[in-house]
Amino acid sequence: MDSLKIDGGVPLKGAISVSGAKNAALPLIAAGLVTDGTLQLRNVPDLVDTGSMEVLLRNHGMDVERTDDRLVIGGSATNFDAPYDLVRKMRASILVLGPLLARYGQARVSLPGGCAIGTRPVDLHIRAMQAFGAIVELADGYIQARAPGGLTGARVVFPMVSVGATENAMIAATLAKGTSELVNAAREPEISDLAECLIAMGARITGHGTDTVTIEGVDSLGGATHDVIPDRIEAGTFAIAAAITGGELTLKNARARHLDSLFEVLRRCGIIIDETDDGIRVAADGGIGSADITTDPFPGFPTDLQAQFMALMCLADGSSRISETVFENRFMHVPELMRMGADIQVDGGIAMVRGKPSLTPAPVMATDLRASVSLVLAALATEGTSEVSRIYHLDRGYSDLEAKLGQCGARMYRV
Ligand code: UD1
Asked: How many angstroms is it from 131 CA to the middle of ligand 1?
């Protein structure tokens, strides 16, 4: 199993190109199932997770071809089963449920297994499909769904905000008969990116980016070419890398309006952030102030940046209260950060972090994607050599991490 040796204490300086967004690319690849034409996606990041989604589509019988950052999806599905073996590797596999049902009237998708960051049920996805008239049964660990006469548009009121359920419902509604309204929909930039692509394919969607999305069903969808938005979580991670190492990084292609909540908090901590012609420049100006955060759906502070921000607060001048409201049990990085000397106390969904002038190098273990990168950040800020094990989690969401950070002065290598 690979691990990363990190020789920290070097302020990172330079420019990094932000890749296409993993969380935008995954539903976009799934949307390839609903077109009668060819969907061409550009700026698709080369990650373990996007690779898993490509494998899943091929498993359904689709033609999927990748050349560099371009993915061409065509053909039609002949197999409507998403087996456990593929789904357990990546929960986002559930995103094929809506497209398969809408386009082919049937889908059999394994229930995703337990997940490190909470129970993460898929009830909202299932309820949306039922609202559209699908008959859904749960048997043998599978969601078996049928809609022999096609789906019918409906008003779906989500009891809580779910990114994935909004995406599944939005894709399904594009081919349902009549009008659908998704109420309490997620407003993440990845939802808008998906809507824009579906519109380019001929879908009729309005209100994306707000909490009510309206979709008028059409008979069929055609091909399109679409550029995946830049990854705001990758960009936010690099912004924190600049801050935590006392360095200065320019994030090329990053979109500031996707990161308002992070940048507002970082500015409160004394970090300088400005937009330049080249991208967004993030620079540390002496010490790191402390700030409290609460994670929330967009436009709130992203749960996917909570672990990285906590690493920063471990080195802040003062105390910080970090409240996680999106996922239960998303503090798995805490014991690992504490192995490096961090002072953190957890009570339910709240972590109290008392900043220290420095941490100490230690061997630590990654537990999930964002937790693992928070350990990398802490190690980069710490003099001496730390080793982060189980870094396969990192490869699910960060492409070329060592190369990107290495060109800015980070000393890290895989062993
Ligand atoms: C997506 C992101 C993930 C991010 C999360 C929240 C992708 C591929 N992943 O995950 O990186 O951390 O949004 O921003 O885009 N829930 C239910 N029932 C459901 C669905 C969700 O109770 O049917 C709950 C979840 O357990 C969680 C909350 O809703 O507590 C939000 O989850 P959701 O927005 O659905 O996350 P994902 O789409 O899985």
From this structure: 20
Q: What's the number of CA atoms in the CB half-sphere (13 Å) around residue 209?
A: 9
- Cα–Cα distance for residue pair 295/160, rounded to 1 Å: 14
- 120, 187, 233: residue to mutate for ligand 1 pocket, most atoms within 8 A of CB: 120
Residue owning the nearest CA to atom 13 of ligand 1: 163
Q: Indicate whether 133 and 7 sit together in one domain.
A: no
Is residue 117 located within the same domain as residue 57?
A: yes
Say if residue 256 is in the same domain as residue 368: yes
Mean pLDDT of 204-217: 98
**How many structural domains compose the chain?**
2
From 227, 255, 276, the end of a domain falls on 227
Nearest protein Cα to ligand 1, atom 4: 304
**Residue appearing with tokens 């899943």:** 56
Verify that 223 and 261 share a domain, yes or no.
no
Give, using CA atoms, the residue closest to atom 37 of ligand 1: 164
128: domain CATH number is 3.65.10.10
Give yes or no: residues 200 and 317 share one domain: no
Decide which of 211, 227, 243 is a domain's last residue.
Answer: 227
Residues labelled as active-site residues: 115
Taking alpha carbons only, the member of 335, 355, 336 closest to residue 346 is 335
C-alpha span between 32 and 38 (Å, rounded)? 8
Amino acid present at 144: Q
Of 84, 371, 9, 176, the residue nearest 198 (C-alpha): 176
55 touches 96 (CB < 8 A):
no
pLDDT tens for residues 122-166? Answer: 999 999 999 999 999 999 889 999 999 999 999 999 999 999 999
Indicate whether 315 and 340 sit together in one domain. yes
Domain span at 15: 3-19+230-414
Residues with CB under 6 A from ligand 1: 23, 26, 91-92, 118, 120-125, 160, 162-165, 190, 303-304, 326-327
Tell which one of 111, 161, 163 to mutate to probe ligand 1, the residue whose CB is within 8 A of the most ligand atoms.
163
- Report pLDDT digits (tens) over 20-56: 999 999 999 999 999 999 999 999 999 999 999 999 9
Residue 96 shares a structural domain with residue 141: yes
Distance 27 CA to ligand 1 centre (A): 13
- Are 160 and 287 within one domain? no
Centre of ligand 1 to C-alpha 65, Å, is: 28
More confident position, 117 or 107: 107
Q: 287 C-alpha to center of ligand 1: Å?
A: 34
H or E stretch covering 267: helix 260-268
